[in-house]
UniProtKB/TrEMBL annotation:
The name this protein goes by in its record: BphX family protein
Name of one Pfam family that matches: BphX
Source species taxonomy: Bacteria, Bacillati, Actinomycetota, Actinomycetes, Micrococcales
Keyword Transmembrane annotated: yes
InterPro entries associated with the record: BphX
Amino acid sequence: MKSLTWWYRVTGVVYVLLGLSWLPVVTMATVSQKIPDFDGAPGGTAVTGFADWMLVFSLDLLVLGAFLLVGSRRPMAWLPLLWLTIALGVVRGIADDVYMIARGYPPLPFLGFIILHAAIIAWGVLAWRGVRRQTGARLSPR
């Protein structure tokens, strides 16, 4: 159970930190590193739209991180959140990073995030298996 509790805590902190790092005030300062040859005019539609998207993405990560931290208090009661986080890691994490690399974005940062998401997924699955072996628990308590 301790491994599952720590998975919730560490993953929650990671998502909160990622959410903070994607706030527009932080990311707009490094947009040229994230998107080489970004040609949006300052204050223009492209820049404004990108900043708006970053805000929504940042809030998404912050909310997930906060829920994971709350869930760490009673991990068995929050098991669906574990599987949601794993599913998001596969789709919004790994699959999206592979897509971005295929689109021609610099691969190194995306490879780092693929490794991060894979580690979160693997640890979550292993922690769940450990709890299941110890308790015979199902996906969620009944």
